[in-house]
Amino acid sequence: MVFNLLHVAVREALKERGIEEPTEPQAKAIPEILEGNNVLIIAPTGSGKTEAAMLPILSKMLEQGTENAGIYVLYITPLRALNRDLLDRIRWWGERLGFRVDVRHGDTDKADRQRQSKTPPHILITTPEMLQAVMTGRRLLGHLKEVRWVVVDEVHELAEDKRGVQLSLALERLRYHVGRDFQIVGLSATVGSPVEVAKFLMGVGRPFKIVMVNVVRNMQLDVVRPWPSEEDVKLAESSGLFPDVVARLRLIKKLVEENRSTLIFVNTRSMAELLGFRLSYLFPDLPVAVHHSSLSKMVRVSVEERLKKGDLKAVVATSSLELGIDIGHIDLVIQYISPHQVTRLLQRVGRSGHRLTAVPKGVIIGEDINDVMEAAVVVKLAKNGFIEPTQIPYKPYDVLVNQIVAFLLLKPRWRLEELYEIIKRAYPYRDLTIEELRRVVKFMQDLYPRLATYFEDSDTVARPRGRGFYRYFYETLSMIPDERQYAVINSKTGELVGALDESFIAEYGNPGVKFIFRGRPWLITEVDDRSIKVVEVSDPSGAIPSWIGEEIPVPYEVAQEVGRLRRRVREGATPEDIAREYHVNEETAKHIVEEVKKHEGPLPDDKTVVVEQFRENVVIVHAAFGTLVNRTLGKLLGELLIRLLEKPVGVHQDPYGIIIQTSEALAAELVTEQLEKLAWMEVREIAELIKTALVKSGSFKRRLLHVAKRMGAVDKEADVYSVSMSKLVEAFSGTPVFDEALREALERDLDLSHTVEVLQRIKAREVKILYSPQPTYLGEVLYEKLSHRLEIIPPERLRRLVLDSTKARLLNYTMLGVCLECGWYGLVRVGEVYELRCPKCGGENIGVVRVVRSDNLEREVRRNYEEVKKTAEILRRYGWLGLYVLASRLPLEAVQEVLAQLDGADINAVTERIQELEKEYLKQRLLD
DNA sequence: GACCTGCTGCGGAGTG
C-alpha cells in the first residue's frame, strides 16, 4: 500500500480527508517521486494527478525540513483559472502540514505580491508567464534559490506551444540560478508521444520515468446518427426546424435527462451558441448553458459554478472546458459532430466519470454520413491505441530572442559558449548550433532599440544600455499574440454588421474585395486599423466567404483511415463487418455502406487519387490525405498551374479533396500531369516551390508580424492594416524573423513531410492516380460543400437565419465600464439596454471604453482612464444610446456636437440624426 | 434540401 510510504503527518491528513485507496496514477507515481525520480504522469483530468505529485513532495518536505525562508515548490499551470482551483486544493494540505501555499498571476493584486516577496510561501502556484516576471525580481530570485521541486500541470498543452518552449528555457535558467538540479514532476492528459513530451519537460540528458494510465481501455464510446421519427417530424413542423435537427436535439435532451451531469462539446463558438439557443428554444425547462472564450469571465465562472452545484444539467462548450477546470463530476460527454482528432476525443471524453470505478462515457452525434464515417474512424483509431504525435516547436528563433534578453537580465554579460551550453539543454534547442546563436545575437544588436550587445573579440554578449531593453521584456512576457478583431460597418447605414477576425483582414482586407458575410455579399469600401466599411451589393459572383479558413484540421492518419473504410466497403464488407470493425451500430453501418455504394466510377480511397473533370473549368482531385497535406498539395498544384497558364487559378480544399477552378477551360489531364511532375521532383525543389507560394499569402504576413513583435523588431501596437506586406517581407527577408515565420508556417499550416511521403508513394505506384471524365457522386458532395458557401440566402429564409443566428462574434464586442465616483469597473455588453448606474455605489458617472476581451480589467482601466472620462459625459447625458454611439466609431467630438444640438429630443430623432451624420462622415472619408 | 463553417491561453519588481 503506497500510502504507507508517506510521512506519518501526510497519512493522518489522508485519513482526515477520508481517502483510503490511492487512484491508479497515485499508486504508480508516489514511489517513483519518493525515490527522487523525475516523473511524467499521464492520466485523464480528475484522476487525482495533483495529489499523486504533491503527496510525496509534501512528505519529502516534512522529512527534509524547510528551515530557510524561500520557495521550495513551484507549481506551474497554463491557466489562471487552474491556479485558483489548485490553491484551494493544495492549501488544505498546506494548512494541515504547516506550509504556506500561495498563488501569483496577472490578477494577483499588489498587496499580495508584496507580501509574497517579503514572506515567501513554501509552495507557489503560478503561470509560465508570471515565472518570467518573478525571475527578474531581486528579492524573489533570492527566494527561488530554495526551489527543490517543480510541478508542471497540463504539459501536453504547453509542449505543442511556444509558451512551453519559453518555459523550457526558463527552467534551464532557473537551474543555473539555483546552481543545482531540482526534481520535476509533469502532469499530462493522454498524449501521442509520451517520451518526446517527457524529454521536453525534463531537458536534454536528464533521466525520467513515465507513469501512464490507459484511458481508452475502459472508455465507452458510441457513434450515433439519429434518424427523424414521426414525432420529430411533427415537432419540426411546429418549431420551424428541420426534422434531422430536431432528431439530434431530442437525442441530446434524452441523454441529458438520463444523466446527472453532461458536457456537450462542439467545435466552434458559433455552434455552441446555436446549439445552446436551439436546446433552450425547444426545451425551455432543460437547464442548459453555453461556455466559450468570447463570453466574459464572469459569465463563464457562473456557468462553471452552476454546473458544479447541479443547477445546470448540461453545458454546451468549446475547448474552453477541455482542461482541468473544476466543474464537478461529469457523467457523460456528448461530442456534437466529429471531433476530427483522436487527442481531442480522448481529452474531452476523459472529462467524464473520474471516480475510481466510474467509466468515462462519450457519445458522438454525427450530422451527415461523411461526418459519421469520420467519427467512426476516430473511435476505431482511439481503440487501437493510436494518438496523433505531439509536435514540439523546433528551435524557434523568436522565443530564443525573448529568452536571451531574460538571461541578460539575470546576469549582464555572458560568454556565448556558456550561454550556448545552457540553452542547448532545453529540448526544443537540442540541435541549435553556436553559429545560429551568434547570428540571432547579432540580429538583436542590429535592432533599434538594441536587445543585446555583442563583442566579437571576446565572443561575449552583454546587456545593452537604455530603457528599450527593459520595455521590450516586460511587454513581451507572453508568447501569445494579440489577435485583433475588426468591426464590420455598413457604410450606408452606419450599422455594426458584425466583426471579422484579423486573419480574414490580413488575407483579403482591401477596398474593392467582395465577400460573403451573414449570408449576404458585401463590398469593402474602406479599411482602417479597427474596422472595415462595407456596402451591400447584389451580385455575389466572385465573392469570398468570410469564414474561408477550414475546420479543425483532420490529421493525415484519420483521412487515410476514412479512405480505407471506403475501400473496405468497395471490397464487399457488409454492414455487420463495418459495425464490428468501427464500433458503430448496425443501422449506422448500413447507411455508411449505402452511401459509398452510391458512388459509381473510380473510388478514391487510401491508395487511390481520383482526378475528376467536374465541369469544363473545374477539376476535382479526390485525395484522402487530410487538411494539411491537401492544403500543401493544393498550393503546389496552384503554383505550377499559375506558372503554366499565366492566369488566375482558384484552389479550395477540404480533408478529402482539392477543387481547382479557372476562368477558362481546365483539363483534368493537365492537373494529372502536374501531380506526376510533383512526384518526380526533388524534395529540395518541392520545398522551394512551396516557399514561393507561401510567402505570397496574407496569412504569412500575419505570421511575420507576430514573429517580428515577439522578436522586438516591430512595435507591439502595429497591426496587419498599418504595415505594408511587401515592405515587411522586404525588410525581414534574410533575417531570423523571416526564417522563423517561414518555419512556423511550414510547421503549423502545412505538412511537407507527409506530402513528400504521399508524392513518393505516387512515384512508387503505391498510390494510383485514376481519371474520371465525368462528375461523380463524391465529387458532387465535395463541390456542394465547398461551393454553397457562396450561395445567397433568399429573404424568406433570412428571417429564420436571423432568429438562429449566433451572436458569438458580436459577443466579443464587450466594453469596459468604469465608475468615476467609486472606481468600480466591469464589462458592459454592447446592444443591451444598460442601466447607467454603478452597481456598487449607485453613481451615474460611468465611462465606457473601447472593446476589450481581457481578463485583466484593472490594467485596461489604468491604460484608458483619460478616454473613459471623456465618454462618461456622453453616457451620463444620453443613456444607453451613448453606447450605440460609441460603438459606431464616429469621432467623439462630432457626436458630442450633434447630441448637444438635439438635447432633449426623443431617442428616435437622435438615432436618425446620428445615422445621417455617420453617412456624411463616411462619405467624406471615402472622398478623401 | 437546409442546418454549419477552428479553439485555447498570458501580461514587472522593488524602491522611492
Describe this structure in words.
It is a single chain. The strands form six sheets. A seven-stranded parallel beta sheet has the order 3-4-2-5-6-1-7, with helices on both faces. Strands 8-13-12-9-11-10 form a six-stranded parallel beta sheet, with helices on both faces. The protein has a six-stranded mixed beta sheet with strand order 18-17-21-20-19-22. The protein is an alpha/beta fold and 928 residues long. Helices cover 48% and strands 16% of the residues. It is globular, with a radius of gyration of 29 Å. The longest helix is centred in the last third of the chain and has 21 residues, at 907-927. It has six domains: 2-212, P-loop containing nucleotide triphosphate hydrolases (Rossmann fold); 220-383, 3-Layer(aba) Sandwich (Rossmann fold), CATH 3.40.50; 397-475, Arc Repressor Mutant, subunit A; 485-550, no CATH class; 601-789, no CATH class; 796-927, no CATH class. Residues 788-813 and 830-834 have low confidence and may be disordered. The structure holds one DNA strand of 16 nucleotides.
Helix and strand layout, with pairings?
Elements: H1 8-17, H2 24-34, E1 39-42, H3 49-64, E2 73-76, H4 80-97, E3 101-104, H5 110-118, E4 123-126, H6 128-134, H7 138-144, E5 149-152, H8 155-159, H9 162-178, E6 183-188, H10 194-202, E7 209-212, E8 220-224, H11 230-239, H12 243-258, E9 262-265, H13 269-282, E10 288-291, H14 297-309, E11 314-317, E12 332-336, H15 342-349, E13 361-365, H16 369-383, H17 397-410, E14 413-415, H18 416-423, H19 434-446, E15 453-455, E16 460-462, H20 467-475, E17 485-490, E18 496-501, H21 502-508, E19 514-517, E20 520-527, E21 531-536, E22 544-545, H22 556-570, H23 575-582, H24 586-597, E23 608-615, E24 618-622, H25 627-645, E25 649-654, E26 657-662, H26 668-679, H27 683-695, H28 698-710, H29 725-732, H30 736-748, H31 752-763, E27 768-772, H32 777-787, H33 795-804, E28 814-819, E29 825-829, E30 846-851, H34 857-863, H35 865-878, H36 881-887, H37 892-901, H38 907-927
Parallel strand pairs: 1-6, 1-7, 2-4, 2-5, 3-4, 5-6, 8-13, 9-11, 9-12, 10-11, 12-13, 17-21, 19-22, 23-27
Antiparallel strand pairs: 14-16, 15-16, 17-18, 19-20, 20-21, 23-24, 24-26, 25-26, 28-29, 28-30
The protein binds one DNA strand of 16 nucleotides through helix 5, helix 6, helix 7, helix 13 and helix 20.
